[in-house]
Amino acid sequence: MRRSFIILALVFTMAASACAESLWQPEAAKSQYADKRAAKVGDIVTVIIVETATSSQSASTNAKKDSSLSTGGGTGAILKNIPAVSYSGGDSMKASGATTRTSTFTTTMTATITKINDNGNFQIEGSRFVQTNAEKEEVKLSGIIRPQDITTDNTVSSACIADAKITHVGSGAISSRQKEGIISKIFKILF
Q: Considering the entire predicted model, what is its pTM?
């Protein structure tokens, strides 16, 4: 009797511990067909950066100036020999100019959700550093996105980022060749 009581107590003890932990874990229960969009801090979202800036400026000038002067002959004993003088003249100037500048920056990078705001929007941050031979290129991104702007393939367009700060910096032999030289800068200052 005592032996069966001990066995029965052991069975209840083991059964109690088995009920305490369930095999069902809700956070791991996503279906393979479930939405894979970023939704919490630490999740990664792919940002498609397509930035285009176009500026144009034109100016025209049309100026004309006429002037004339006439004086009568002199009077008095000394000044009566000075004849009447008249002068008329003028100048005109026309000028026009126009400039147009277009720049495009396109790339794809990933960013991490760093914070969820009180209104549910996500703060994101990301950087990408690429070094090829002696050329270095770095892209940094930060901003705020809305959850509904994240597509089903977990991407968001850079046009949907609020307070976007996107920087693209490159350095290396090719980049240094594209910079203006010191002598050229001096000539621009002088002339």
A: 0.57
